[in-house]
Amino acid sequence: MSAAILLTSRELAELVPMRRDEASKMLKSAHEGRQWRKVSLRISWSRGNGGRQRVVQLESLPLELQTKYWKEKAITGGAHPDQVNEYREILETAKSAPTKRKTPTKEELEEAEQRWKNSTTVQQEKAEKALNAIILIDRLVSDGSRVDPAINQVAKQQGVSASSIYKWRRKVSGWPRAHRLYALLPGHGGGARKVELCPAAWKYIKADYLRPEAPALTAVYERATRQGQLEGWTLPSYKTVLRRIQAIDPQPVVLAREGLEALERMYPAQERDKTCFHSMEAVNADGHKFDVFVRWPDGEVSRPIMCAWQDLYSGKFLSYRVTKTENSDTIRLSFGDIIETYGIPKHAYLDNGRGFASKWLTGGMPNRFRFKVKEDEPAGILTKLGVNVHWATPYHGQAKPIERAFRDLCEYVAKHPAFSGAYTGNNPMAKPENYGSKAVPFELFMEILDQEMEAHNAREGRRSKVCAGRSIDQAFEASYAVSPILQATEHQKLFCLMTGEGVTPKRGSGEVHLHDNRYWSEELNQYRSQKLTVRFDPDNLHEPIWVYSLKGEFICMAPCIGATGFNDTQAAREHARKKNQFKKAQKEKLKALRDMEVLEATIPNISIDDPDKVHITVSKSIEQKKEAVIAEEQLNLKKLPTVERKPQPAPASEFNARLKGFVSNLKKPDSESADRPNTVKEAMKQFTGNEVKK
Asked: How far apart are CA 96 and CA 12, in angstroms?
C-alpha cells in the first residue's frame, strides 16, 4: 500500500465541508485526544511554506469522507490508477446505504426526549427540516432511485448541501423512526465524548457551591483546582464545570443558595376566586404602620399604626382606627364600627399578631396560633357573636388580600405632598434626602387619610372579577342590597365598645375590685371566689360594669361603690340604711325559702307519764310539740342538783342612793363631816357596808 495521505486544515474543510477555522479547531481538539464523530483521528505535525501545521491521515477519517475523497480524485483525475483500484472497494461501499450504528438504549432515548423538551423553537424547526429531507430521500430510494442522486436532488430542493444530508443520515442511523426527530436536534452530535470529572472533585464542587453563602462558581472552581493538586484530581475546564452545574435541577440549587422563601416563589401562587362570597360575608383585618412621622397631641413623634378591616368580596375598607401601637382595644373598637354600620360578618380572616389573638377578641377558639387555650378562658367578642375566625399563615402576606390594598396606601398616603419631609421610606436603605426634616400634626394626617381612604373605595375602573370596571363602593353596595346580613342588637353594639377583664369576686362580700374601684351587686354573693368576666367603659370607670360568667352568660350590672370621707356622717347613715335594707331583704328571702313547719314536724315528742321511763314519739301537731317541750323542762328541773344561794347584789335603785350619799359626804368640808373617811379602806367600808379584806 502507498504512503499515508495527509490532509491539511484547508483540505479537510473542503472535504467535510466546514469553515477553515472550524477545521483547525477540530484538528487541535483531536490532537489533544478528543474524538471526532466517535472516531480517534491520527494527527501529526507537518512543515510547509507557512511553517508548522497540523495534518490528519486520510485513513483515520470516517469511511464516508474517505469515499468522498477518492470519488473526487477519480472524477478530476487527480488520483493514480493504482490508488483508485486500491480503494475501489471503498467506492462500492459508498454506493450502498449508510453504515448502521448501534441502536440507542432506553436511557439514551429518554435523555434525547428531555433535550427535545428543553430545546428552543428554532432548534426544533431545524430538526423538522432535516427530518423532512430524510423522509423524501427514503421515498425516492424506495421508488427505485439510487442514494446519491436522491441526496443531490433533495439537496437542491431544500437549498442545503449534500454533505449536510449525509450528516443527517448518519445521525438517524440506527434510531427508531418515531425518535429520529430527537437525533436531528442541532447540537446533538450523538458521539461527542463526555469529559470525565473525578467523582471526588465533583462532590467537593457541589458541596462548596450549594451553600447558603452562595459563593461564585469561579471561586469554587479555583478552590477545587488547588485541592485537586493535593488530592490528584483531574479537573476539566471551567466552562465544562459550569455546564455541569447548569444541568442540575434549579429547585434544589435555589433552596440551598437562596433559602425556603425563594423556593416558594418558584411555585405558582394560588388564585382564589372571591365571587363565592357576598358583601359582608367575610372580612379580613391587619395592622399597617405608615412610613410617616406624626406628632401626636401629647407631643410625641412616631409612626402611626392603623388597624383596618376590609370586605373580602369587594375589597372595600369598612373601618379603620389609628393609634400609636397595635392593641386589642383598637381592634375591638374598629370591629365595633363595622357591626354598628354594616352588620355582623360570618367569617373573619385575621393576622396572627398578639392584638388579634387576644383572648378578649378570640377567647375560646382552639385554633389560634398564640397563647395557651384554657378551659376557664372567657369567650371573646368574635366568639360570642358567632364569627368563624380563620388564621392567616404566619409570616405570609399573600394570605391576606388587605396587604395589597396597603401597598396602594403607601403611594397615595405616605407619599402625599402634604407629608413631604415626614416620609421615612419603607426600609432603612430607602430613606429620602429630606428624612426627618419634619413631623406632620396628627389632625392633618387623619384628614389626608380620610380623604385617600374614601378615594380608594370610590376609584372606578377596577379590573377584578367582582368589580369588572366598577368602583369598590359600587360593587359592595350592589351585593349588600340583596344579601342576607345579620344586624347587631343594641346590646351587641355596646358589648363591642366595652373592654373586658377577668376578675375574681372577694370571698366575703363578693365585691369586685377593678382599677382601684369597687363594684358590687347582690347577685355577686353566689359567685364569691369564682372567676368571672367584666366589661366596662375604660373612659368612664364610675359607670356600672357588666358581669358575665366565663361561658358568656350575663349575671348582673354592678354599680361602683365610691369611697367616702372618714367623718362623713351622711354617707355613713346612707350606707347603714342600704345595709339594713339588704339584711331585711335577705331575711324575707330566707323566710320564703325555708319552711319551718316541715322541720318542726320531725322534732321528737317526750312523754313523762313515768319520770324514770321516757317514751319518745313523733309529734303530730303543734299543741303536742308545746306539751313535750314543757314536760322536758320540768324533767330537767327535777334533775338539777341543789345549790346554796349566794347573796344577790343590791338593786340598782339602792346602789344609786348609796353612791349619791357617799359622793355628797366627800364634798362636805372637814368641819361639817365628822364621819368623813380618811383612808381608802374606810371609804370602801362606808360605801359597801362590809369590811374590806386584804
From this structure: 24
